[in-house]
Design brief:
Rossmann fold, 4-stranded mixed sheet, 4 domains, alpha/beta
Length: 443
């Protein structure tokens, strides 16, 4: 029975996400048992579980309701550790019942400051977030407007602020996406409970609105939110907003609303630099006690420079593949995974760049590498540079030879063969090649 239920779930999931995501995130999951409306699933590791929770929670909730019914739920089993996962959709009555002592904050407890790795790309935003969490509402950063592209950590940061405020100060914090807010507004109109909705919102201590750009074109929703914003602002309650663009670029939103957004601190989350990407990977790997060679970690950090979500996606895909196939995580597997997840993995590595790296390593000039000198150290450096030029670029042998003082293609062939022979017979030389390879990749 449990297998049939999970197969039904998979058929719905498959129709809602792309094939690569389905293979990566859901194929590795195995059903264990079904009892008392609870489907127990086995996932490879805690990291895998957290990814599902952070990125597919809403989809899983919808699927469970369709397959198991309204009271259905999932229980995960991870290395003999069980965690209960109940439906987390917000009940309208729970939201609108302002007499309740407990406010359903809708925050993901996994989003914390200590797991938000900072670098030049996000240090200002993180610092401001910590300041806000110490004194919400009564600080220069109210409202706080964080913007940036997809997968750069906006949701993680704003929920980290909310979790810190909720835990430390016992204040009522409420996180909601703009789309969910709009749906609540529509439902409240249908049920003639708009006053209840507004009353709920204007009485929270900290309001966090994600994806504010989706208010675009929703004039009535913007009008209600403008009223709520003003009421909270007058009460010195903390307002935190996130969007994919800066306030000036949020087309389709009322000017008076955008003006309110600009009245506090606006800060951008930029693409993480190489060092930050490396720190993120190392944090994840250490946290989950995963064994991956440093060369592979550096390669991932160098190649995946788009956003944090894709960076983590590559890592989880590697873990999933390794768990299923029982194979070690190799550089070949890593390259294959990256090519499937990241659209553009071809960095511009040209012959000149390779010559610069090799010349610095061997402490000779590029001019020496190109001339007719026959000193052993210069010849080896030249051959190594030719070897990497053939490996990393699409230049023809003739073209490579031209870049090394007009040598012919046979010289390049000989150079490549000589390097391969030395790699096979000289361990010290082999380590030198590995180090140069690393330097070419990370820059």
């Amino acid at each position: 029975m449990h297998r049939k239920h999970w197969e039904d779930c998979l058929s719905i999931i498959k129709s809602n996400i792309n094939s690569q995501s389905f293979i990566t995130w859901f194929k590795p999951i195995k059903p264990k048992c079904y009892k008392d409306k609870t489907l127990t699933l086995i996932v490879p590791n805690k990291f895998f579980y957290e990814w599902l929770e952070n990125h597919y929670l809403e989809l899983l909730n919808d699927v469970i309701i369709k397959v198991l019914g309204k009271n259905g739920k999932i229980e995960y089993e991870i290395s003999n550790i069980k965690r209960n996962k109940k439906e987390e959709k917000i009940d309208k009555k729970e939201i609108l019942d302002t007499k309740q002592k407990r406010v359903f904050n809708n925050l993901n407890e996994n989003f914390r400051f200590n797991s938000f790795i900072s670098g030049k790309c996000n240090s200002v935003a993180k610092t401001a977030g910590k300041r806000i969490s110490e004194n919400p509402g009564k600080n220069p950063f109210n409202p706080l407007m964080i913007y940036g592209g997809v997968g750069l950590g906006k949701t993680h940061l704003i929920q980290s602020i909310g979790n810190k405020i909720s835990k430390k100060l016992k204040s009522s914090v409420y996180y909601v996406t703009s789309e969910k807010f709009a749906n609540q507004f529509i439902d409240s109109l249908k049920e003639n409970r708009l006053k209840d909705l507004i009353h709920f919102y204007v009485n929270v201590d900290c309001l966090i609105i994600d994806d504010i750009q989706f208010f675009k074109g929703k004039e009535k929703t913007q009008e209600v939110f403008f009223h709520i914003f003003n009421q909270l602002n007058l009460k010195n309650k903390q307002i935190i907003l996130a969007a994919d663009k800066s306030p000036a670029q949020l087309n389709g939103l009322e000017k008076r609303l955008v003006s309110r957004f600009k009245s506090g601190l606006t800060v951008e989350l930029e693409k993480p630099d190489y060092k930050t990407r490396l720190n993120i990977l190392e944090y994840k790997i250490e946290k989950e006690n995963i064994k991956i060679d440093s060369e592979i970690i550096e390669y991932i950090a160098f190649q995946v420079d788009t956003n944090i979500r894709e960076l983590e996606g590559v890592l989880v895909s590697l873990l999933a593949h390794s768990t299923i196939t029982k194979d070690e995580i190799s550089i070949e597997l890593t390259k294959s995974i990256i090519s499937k997840i990241v659209k553009d993995t071809n960095r511009e590595i040209d012959i000149k760049y390779i010559q610069e790296i090799v010349s610095k390593y061997f402490h000779i000039s590029i001019e020496e590498m190109k001339d007719k000198a026959r000193k052993k150290e210069i010849v080896i450096a030249r051959q190594v540079a030719m070897y990497f030029s053939k490996d990393f670029t699409n230049n023809s042998l003739k073209s490579i030879g031209f870049h090394f003082g007009g040598r012919d293609h046979s010289t390049v062939i000989h150079a490549v063969q000589s390097v391969n022979d030395m790699i096979d017979t000289d361990n010290f030389f082999k380590k030198s090649i590995e180090e140069i390879n690393r330097r070419i990749l990370i820059g």
